[in-house]
Amino acid sequence: MSNAVSALNSASFEGFATVTETGLRGMITLRGDLSSAKLKAAVKAATGAAIPDVRRVTTGKDGMAAWMSPDELLILCDYASVNDTIATLTAKLTGEHALAVNVSDARAVFRIAGDGAREVLAKLAPVDLSAGAFQAGDFRRSRIAQVAAAFWLNDDNSFELVCFRSVAQYVFDVLKVSAQPGGEVGFL
Amino acid sequence: MLTLQCPYCGVDAEETELHAEGEAHLKRFGPGSSDDDFETYLFMRENPKGVHFERWRHSNGCGKFFHAARSTTTLEVFGTYSAQTYEPPQDIKDKITAKYPGWSWREFA
Amino acid sequence: MRRYSAFAIAREAARFHTGWERAWRSPEPKKKYDVIIVGAGGHGLATAFYLGKNFGITNVAIIEKGWLGGGNTGRNTTIIRSNYLQDPSAAIYEKARSLYETMSQDLNYNVMFSPRGVMMLAQTQSEIRGYERTAHANALQGVTTEFIGPERVKELVPIINIDGPRYPVLGALWQARGGTGRHDAVAWGYARACSDMGMDIIQKTEVIGVRQEGGKVTGVDTTKGPIDCDKLGLVVAGNSGDLANMAGFRLPMESVALQALVSEPIKPCMDVVVMANTVHGYMSQSDKGEMVIGGGTDGFNNYTQRGSFHHVEETVRALVETFPIVSRLKMLRQWGGIVDVTGDRSPVIGKTPLGNCFINAGWGTGGFKAIPGGGWATAELIAKGEPGPLSAEFGMDRFIEGRFIDESVAAGVAH
Amino acid sequence: MSTRLATGGRLLNKGKQLNFTFNGKQLTGFEGDTLASALLANDQMMMGRSFKYHRPRGVVASGAEEPNALMNMGKGGKFEPNQRATTTELFDGLTCASQNHWPSLEFDVGAVNNYMTRFFPAGFYYKTFMFPKFAWKHVFEPIVRQSAGLGQVPKDRDVDTYEHFYAYVDIAVIGGGVAGLQAAKAAALSGAKVLLMEQTAHWGGRAATDGGEVDGKPVADYIADLVAELDAMDNVTMRTRMMGSGVYDHGYVLGYERVNDHTPGNDGPRHRLWRIRAKQIVTATGAIERPLSFAGNDIPGVMLAAAIRDYAADYGVSIGDRTVVVTNNDDAYRTAILLKNAGLEVPVILDARAGGGGALAEEARALGIRIENGKGIAKVKGGKRVTSVAICSQAGEGAVLEEIQCDAVAMSGGWSPVVHLWSHCGGKLTWDDAQAHFRPDATRAPTNQDGIGFVVPAGSANGEMDLAAILNDAHDAGKAASKAAGFNATRKAAPKADAQAEAAMEPVWLMPQGAGPKLRIKAWLDFQNDVKVSDVRLAAQEGYESVEHTKRYTTLGMATDQGKLSNINGLATLAGQLNAPIPAVGTTTFRPPYTPISFGAIAGEARDEVFQPLRRTTIHGYHEDVNAFYEPVGQWRRPYTFPRKGESHADAVKREILQTRDSVGLLDASTLGKIIVKGPDAGKFLDMLYTNMMSNLKPGKCRYGLMCSENGFLSDDGVVARIDEDTFLCHTTTGGAERIHGWMEDWLQCEWWDWKVYTANVTEQYAQVAVVGPNARKVIEKLGGDMDVSKEGLAFMEWKDGKIGDFDARAYRISFSGELSYEIAVPASQGRAFWDALMEAGAEFNIMPYGTEALHVMRAEKGFIMIGDETDGTIIPQDLGLNWAISKKKEDFLGKRAQLRSHMADPNRWKLVGLKTVDGSVIPDGSYAIAAGSNANGQRNTQGRVTSTYYSPTLDCGIAMGLVHNGPDRMGEVIEFNKVDGSTVKAEIVNPVFYDMDGEKQNV
């Protein structure tokens, strides 16, 4: 895997919040019946994480699970272990109608950190990002300016954001515009 | 600028997260159907001044299609519901009836 | 009718304009007319006018629920062009355009037709091919257009940014004799002429029912009581579905909001109409100096005449990109109108399931530019009971046969 | 003359002097000044010219309603036309110039129109300029356009930045006057999250100027305490310089924040457009004073009474030494009293009411001011400045009783609530006879998605004009909004206020009421657009009876102030002429924005590089490195060709094709859509989606498939690979991935929801490279790895997983060029490395990348159709001779029923053929095949058209594909294609496969 590079090679920008492309990440689209015991066991076995509630992320020792839709999770893990994780999922889901597919290279991940992180996102996403409305562990699919994206809030008050790899530069650019010094809003 | 609640992920999604997908509860006519039925399926539209049952997709969101009952004159939303239904749920129909006694829409009222 | 002229103005000026007569009468409805037209917008009034002028039918009432010209006729961005791809469209829009050229003289009312030229920008290879195809089609249709290069675009529109980083301008389809007109004046001019022919324009009167007997129309019920007629024309853009429901049939149409906006006025800086379909925006400058701007329709059924703001946003950012100097202009006013959009986005002019009831509808975003042509064709349809060559292809039967008139093949959006 | 007073100026910081220039003159003002107040302090009363007659125009108001004082502001990339001086905060270095005159503000040639006023009544242009026919466009229109237009055209690109911000609150309060503050407090006490916005830089509005007491303290102190109190509340956000610009459906509010207009050198955006969702909206937008309609009311020096008061109290500026006050209400007396107390002369107060005023009038009289009841102004005299007024009886026709010297006139025709934001979304109005204005009808509020009212008017915006009533109403509005938003409203009582009682106003729509035509033609309604009482009367006389007709016929209220001063006066004039009650005539529609907002703010961050998303493949960096020439395809930007130094695009394309056909070429095919379709019903599902059969495809094999819309038209094509029993991978066109994925989900979710199928769009997971040409295999083999790509190891239309070099690869043996070809997918993160490895391995074969144009030409040489070229949304597969790909066995597939309709089954449809020009030239793009004669509309008949046309380097001649009537039956026939110059080009109808008809080359 020595040839593998992430979309923006861990580019970073320091504004009134810090925006960083986080490098390669293992990501798996898992579609199936989220209420089934088998799927629950598979996700547990693969990541250690429980099935997340609607619009939440859960964390286990080997990865995270994010609620994408009523029949879809996004599984996050180390880039290097993604094939093993898929193998575990697939093995545990034998006989069940489900789909687990590697999308690690189809996406880019950004971290937005710092006191202004909420406001940087709130300039681009039609989402209530106030502290009362969006809390650690909350996960939201929406748009960032003109492209689809998903993001969640970590316990350390930083956001992580996933978008398609082809628009990584666009997303980075609009996040940079949002985080420009002097652009603090003072609302969130 | 509409806001509709996605019945799948519970988000009060503003229109920019959504995509309008036209009239709901159309019955598909395939090979073997009459010309009239096929034309009705593809082109003839209720287009009411009043409550409209329509399809939306939470395209910048959970990706699911859903149905909405919405007034085209006041933009009041009587409810959103699963796309996997043949007609609107009773509670939504009741809500519409309370507001517009005697309304009807194609095969249901 | 007293003629309008510079001399008339001078004469009236001497007596402080106290002598001007009404532009149109305001009569009470008669019991019966030969023809009732529902809808005193551009198409309705033009239909009535050509019924009188071309067919001598003047026992006509035009019934309007609001005020004449108050629908889409008075809400559009006033673009007039005929550079359409498909033969039936090119024929009716070119007929309309040519009638606009002499309309001020024909009606003795200055509608300020300004053939300043309309260009549709090509910003992708497929748009180039689409517009070159249109240019070739137009050459055979008797519509004068040409495909021009980016340098010529820049020469005609100095404020345009032809080297935009995202979508450089690769050329344009140019119709030099397209342009703009004063939308209200078109309705007022036709109304004055219709009234002068003895037709009754009945405003603030709503049609609430369509009367029929034996499968044929016999009249309408209105908020001023029933009125009988031999023939009925429904020409009610934005309300066609509602009227069709009253008459007992459904239409292959949906009603959606289309928005427009204007800037504050500035000195003349753009002498042509520019349409940029890749980025979804078009713009011209009015005689007052306002930049007149439009974009695409909303996706959902709507009768509120208020659209969704994100479409305004999309249009404005397209224009800021295409014309960078507008960034520091300000939006003065935005508004919406309701347009009827058909399954192939082309209009319907034709018979209906109800005998002697005819319809002109579904113009989508193209209604204003078609007014004289649509009126001409609808008058012929009503007078003869059968479509003439201009409307022959626009009947509703095309949806059953799968015979569509699709203009979107050349350009993403049809305006 | 207007000048700075020694006293007054509560908003000024007189310790900080600011320099600015107006029309090239160096002037000074103070921090806290508006541009208008600073100009007035420098005796610059005249600030512009009117639109139609180019009459001299002075400032008439002190706020957002100002129609006259519009400036060309700034320079270069910060230049902005039509900036209102009354809402522009003065800053050091401000540069501005007045508008709509030539050569100068003082001497304007355009003012000749002024002398022709009588010949230019409302609608005059509809009645003339008609002859000769083309004179309008070429003679009259340019004159009209040049003399109209107001501000100058910006020349340079905007140097500032803009942004949006999404905010979600329970209650948005628009307007930070005393009512807005009070409403915000009442709302906030319920615990609701409140956003309070004020368009100016100051809280409190005009209450402090007008005086009164609240809860026993001066109103100014009460406001200061209220602001401090709100500021301390966690659930309240307060923003100044932020205008509530529009109220839209479902509780959407636009807030227009002018972040840096007053500090143009600062970091950060110039404007921020807030997109606010509020459960409830309180409109505390105040009221606007109305002018009075008398002859000469447009002469500079005639101003709104309250504006004169504002300039004196807020900015310490006197408009004149001798100010005549003319009014129909008590409020204007406050102006007289303030001026008198400031040591200025008020020669007379003309009160149109026969009974005169109340307590305020007594106070004025006690100060020694002369008051004339039942009197009005017959005429104002002066040119560029008021010199005197002629007094008459209001009841009469304007006989002059006395002439009084003065240099300013303060007029007040009563107050109109600002109902714009209430009305934007459908809130209805009711006519208040006592105050002669429209006010919100609380029973007909605009409704939201839940069908309940979501706008609550407060204070003078709700028609309350007395301080105590305003505070009461605002307090109630805040409570009502909090309750409607789901909170328990506060039980605290409204504060007690005390202000001077006022006598009733009496409407005055024309002064004097019997004014004849000579006076009416000088009585302005719309100062900017030059609409007078006479014009509105003329419109009504000519039948333009609807208020919308009148507005459009006269241009009343269509100026940049959108009729804030003129609408009610115009409406009343129309009603008077029609002899109808005012409410029966109705109002025009209020449309956003409240005052104009910048296009820059609306566009937000979306400009230049981030105007729209640009999608890049992982090989994009290579294309950049070698300076590819691009074409946009959807949001992707694909290399059209890779020109070398000095090479034309056509030559580059030719080189790429010849080299690929001769040796080997590379195409970045990553943009092709890739969708996984998996599940027990996947085969059944694809059989419905594609026109051909997919369920019988064997794992390891590929098949080309077509998709149609339900309307029968060909919508996409691509190669389907069966991965295993349960799983397919569907390739789509470059633009088609998202569309087709959505199309699949649509059918799975909404029609066949019981079918067990999952889809996933994995387009971007892979970088895909087409290695094409006779040496393709050698290049791949040279990379090594464990994949057998020999003819037998990977046969045509098969796919295989394995290692190519170090890369995990999936190779598809498919060809869109007719050559030996492998499309190889590797993980996207390794795409660039894989591409570089291929380039290196291919060096000995002189490998080169080729772009989309070479791709197009090669596929056309091979007779393959291209979605978007051969199809345009009106083409069915049968038109393209693709019947072989339409299953006859399947009962149903999407589009099948449609294709049975009469027009689609018509044998006369144009069908696909190849075309070869007789002279070897290239048929122009878009050309039509002409046929004999014309149709009923006089249009030339046609019998076909080209769909793709190219110079073929392989065949060294022009080739084309096209649709021709009965084409496949007319092989060898020569038909003519049109050119735009009227000539034609002859072409022979041939087989569309020009190259390697038997397919031997792709199969080696």
Automatic annotation (TrEMBL), chain A:
SUPFAM superfamilies noted in UniProt: Folate-binding domain
Residue stretches in coiled coil: none
| Protein name in the entry | Sarcosine oxidase subunit gamma
Record organism:
Shimia gijangensis
Automatic annotation (TrEMBL), chain B:
> Which domain of life, per UniProt?
Bacteria
| Residues spanning the signal sequence | none
Check the record and name the Gene3D superfamilies matching this protein. Folate-binding superfamily
- BP-aspect Gene Ontology terms: tetrahydrofolate metabolic process
In the record, what terms sit under GO molecular function? sarcosine oxidase activity
Q: Which organism is it from?
A: Shimia gijangensis
In terms of Pfam families, this protein maps to: SoxD
Name the record gives this protein: Sarcosine oxidase subunit delta
TrEMBL record, chain C:
NCBIfam families given in the database record? soxB
The entry's family comment says: Belongs to the SoxB family.
| InterPro entries in the cross-refs | FAD-dep_OxRdtase (IPR006076), FAD/NAD-bd_sf (IPR036188), Rhodanese-like_dom (IPR001763), SoxB (IPR006278)
EC annotation from Swiss-Prot or TrEMBL = 1.5.3.24
GO CC annotation, single: cytoplasm
Q: Which Pfam families does this one have? A: DAO
Q: What Gene Ontology terms describe what this protein does at the molecular function level?
A: nucleotide binding; sarcosine oxidase activity
> Chief subcellular site?
cytoplasm
> Which keywords label this protein?
Cytoplasm, FAD, Flavoprotein, FMN, Nucleotide-binding, Oxidoreductase
Q: What reaction gets catalysed by this protein?
A: sarcosine + (6S)-5,6,7,8-tetrahydrofolate + O2 = (6R)-5,10-methylene-5,6,7,8-tetrahydrofolate + glycine + H2O2; sarcosine + O2 + H2O = formaldehyde + glycine + H2O2
Q: Where in the cell is it found?
A: Cytoplasm
The record's section on SUPFAM superfamilies has:
FAD/NAD(P)-binding domain
Cofactor(s) in the UniProt record: FMN; FAD
The identity of this protein, by name, is Sarcosine oxidase subunit beta
Domain Rhodanese: residue ranges: 35-79
Q: Which GO terms describe its biological process?
A: tetrahydrofolate metabolic process
Instruction: Spell out where the chain crosses the membrane.
Output: none
Taxonomic lineage is:
Bacteria, Pseudomonadati, Pseudomonadota, Alphaproteobacteria, Rhodobacterales
UniProtKB/TrEMBL annotation, chain D:
The species this protein was found in: Shimia gijangensis
For this UniProt record, the keywords arranged alphabetically read as follows: Oxidoreductase
Q: Which family does it belong to?
A: Belongs to the GcvT family.
The Aminomethyltransferase C-terminal domain, residue ranges = 911-996
Q: Name one GO biological process term.
A: tetrahydrofolate metabolic process
Q: What is the recorded name of this protein?
A: Sarcosine oxidase subunit alpha
GO molecular function per UniProt: sarcosine oxidase activity
**UniProt domain FAD/NAD(P)-binding: residue ranges:** 170-422
Enumerate the InterPro entries for this protein.
Answer: 2Fe-2S-bd_N (IPR042204), FAD/NAD-bd_sf (IPR036188), FAD/NAD-binding_dom (IPR023753), GcvT/YgfZ/DmdA (IPR028896), GcvT/YgfZ_C (IPR029043), GcvT_C (IPR013977), GCVT_N (IPR006222), Sarcosine_oxidase_asu (IPR006277)
All residue ranges annotated as the GCVT N-terminal domain in the record: 620-890
Keyword check for Oxidoreductase = yes
Give the taxonomic lineage as stored in the record. Bacteria, Pseudomonadati, Pseudomonadota, Alphaproteobacteria, Rhodobacterales
Q: What SUPFAM superfamilies does the database record attribute to this sequence?
A: Aminomethyltransferase beta-barrel domain (SSF101790), FAD/NAD(P)-binding domain (SSF51905), Folate-binding domain (SSF103025)
Q: Where is the SoxA A3 domain?
A: 522-604
